[in-house]
Amino acid sequence: MSSTTSNPASSTILPGGIEEIVSLFTVTPTDTPTPPAERAEKIARPRFGTVFSDHMARISWRREEGWIHRRVEKYGPLQLDPATAVLHYAQEIFEGMKAYAHADGSVWTFRPEENAARLARSAHRMALPALPVDDFVAACAALVRVDSEWVPTAEDSSLYLRPFMFASEAFLGVRPADEVEFLVIASPSGAYFAGGVKPVSIWVDSEYHRAGPGGTGSAKFGGNYAASLLPQSQAAAKGFDQVCFLDGATNTYLEELGGMNVFLVMDDGSVHTPELTGSILEGVTRSSILRLAADRGREVVERRIPLTEVVEGLASGRVTEAFACGTAAVVTPVGRLAGDTFDSTVGDGQPGELTMAIRAELTDIQYGRAADRHGWMRRLA
Ligand SMILES: *Cc1c(COP(=O)(O)O)cnc(C)c1O
C-alpha cells in the first residue's frame, strides 16, 4: 500500500471552493512521527520558533505551469543548490498567523484572507508570483488538519503558522526567478508574555531606517528584517527591548517597529497611528484595532505623527498610552520611549487601560471567548 493518500481530514468546514483545494493536497505522512509523550512535552514547553510540527504544506510554482504539486509532507530540511536565487538576491516574502484551539476542540485562525492578500501584494513588489487567496487558506488548513494534535490548548498559546515563498531556481542571473516554492510550517507557541503582560522600552532610532520611499517597507520581505537587526542589537546593547524607526525621507515621523505597528492614545480618548505611506507594513492586527477602537466610540486617526509631537505629548500628558501590535504579541504596552535627545515614561510606565482592554477584546475573539461580530474567524479544523 502506498503511504500517499488524499487528505483524510477533508471536510466542509471552509467555503466549498477552499475545501475543494484542500482535497487537492496530497498527504504523505511522516514515517517518523513525534511520539505523543515527546510532542506533549514540546507543546508544554515551547520555545518560540525552535520546535515545529511533524509536517509542512508546500506548493511549487513554475513559470510555464503555474502553481503545482499541492502537498503536505514530512517537515524537514530543504535541499538547495548553492546557486539558488534566494541565497544571493533575497527574493523572499513571508506571513505570520496563528491557529487557536477553542474550548470545543475546534481550531480557528484570524482573518487569513488578509494575510493571503498581503502575501500577494508582497509578491507583486518582489516580482514573485501571486498565490491565490484560496490556495493560501487551503494550505494552512491542510497542514493544521494533519498536525491538529500540535495545536496547544494552554491559555494564550497557539500554533504559530509561518507561510513563506522564495525564489528556488538555481540561477545567478539577476531577474525574477522562474521557479518558486511556497511553504507553510507550524510552531507551537506559548503565551508571548509568560508571567503577565509587561511594558516594553523602545529606542527611537534616528540613524538607521528600515524602509524608504518606493522601497520595500510595505512588503513582508525578509530583507526588511535583515536591515533591522543591527539597529535592534544596538538598541538592545543600550538596554532597550525594541527599536522604533522614523520615516526614511525626513527622519521626522514615527513609522513602526521592526515587526510591529505602533499606536498612541491621547488624553481626549482618541487613538492615533501612523498612516500607511508606503513604507509601513499594513498589519492585520493594526487594522483590527482601528476597527475595535472605532466600535468603542473612539475617534481613530491615521496620520503622519512627528516624533517631536510625541515627546512633547508625553511630557505634557497629551499622550496617555502607547502600544505596539502584531500577530505574535497581539498588543504590547510601551512603558518607556527614548532617543538621542529624550527619555520619556509613557503614562505611569504601566500598561494603559485602553491598551489592555483592546488586547483582551481581540484575544477573546481569537480564542472564541467573545462573539466574532465582524466575521473575522475562520475554522480550519
Ligand atoms: C508582520 C509585521 C507587522 C504586524 O503585522 P500583523 O499582520 O499585525 O501581524 C508589523 N510590522 C512589520 C514590519 C511586520 O513585518
From TrEMBL:
UniProt entry keywords in alphabetical sequence: Amino-acid biosynthesis, Aminotransferase, Branched-chain amino acid biosynthesis, Pyridoxal phosphate, Transferase
GO biological process, one term: isoleucine biosynthetic process
Superkingdom of origin: Bacteria
CC cofactor: pyridoxal 5'-phosphate
Gene3D superfamilies registered for this protein in UniProt: 3.30.470.10, D-amino Acid Aminotransferase, subunit A, domain 2 (3.20.10.10)
Catalytic activity: L-leucine + 2-oxoglutarate = 4-methyl-2-oxopentanoate + L-glutamate; L-valine + 2-oxoglutarate = 3-methyl-2-oxobutanoate + L-glutamate; L-isoleucine + 2-oxoglutarate = (S)-3-methyl-2-oxopentanoate + L-glutamate
SUPFAM superfamilies recorded: D-aminoacid aminotransferase-like PLP-dependent enzymes (SSF56752)
E.C. designation(s): 2.6.1.42
GO MF term list: L-isoleucine-2-oxoglutarate transaminase activity; L-leucine-2-oxoglutarate transaminase activity; L-valine-2-oxoglutarate transaminase activity
Pathway membership, UniProt: Amino-acid biosynthesis; L-valine biosynthesis; L-valine from pyruvate: step 4/4; Amino-acid biosynthesis; L-isoleucine biosynthesis; L-isoleucine from 2-oxobutanoate: step 4/4; Amino-acid biosynthesis; L-leucine biosynthesis; L-leucine from 3-methyl-2-oxobutanoate: step 4/4
Signal peptide: none
Keyword Transferase applies: yes
Residues the record lists as N6-(pyridoxal phosphate)lysine modifications: K220
Family the UniProt entry places it in: Belongs to the class-IV pyridoxal-phosphate-dependent aminotransferase family.
PANTHER family registered for this protein in UniProt: BRANCHED-CHAIN-AMINO-ACID AMINOTRANSFERASE (PTHR11825:SF44), SUBGROUP IIII AMINOTRANSFERASE (PTHR11825)
Listed NCBIfam families: ilvE_II, PRK13357.1
Protein known as: Branched-chain-amino-acid aminotransferase
Lineage: Bacteria, Bacillati, Actinomycetota, Actinomycetes, Micrococcales
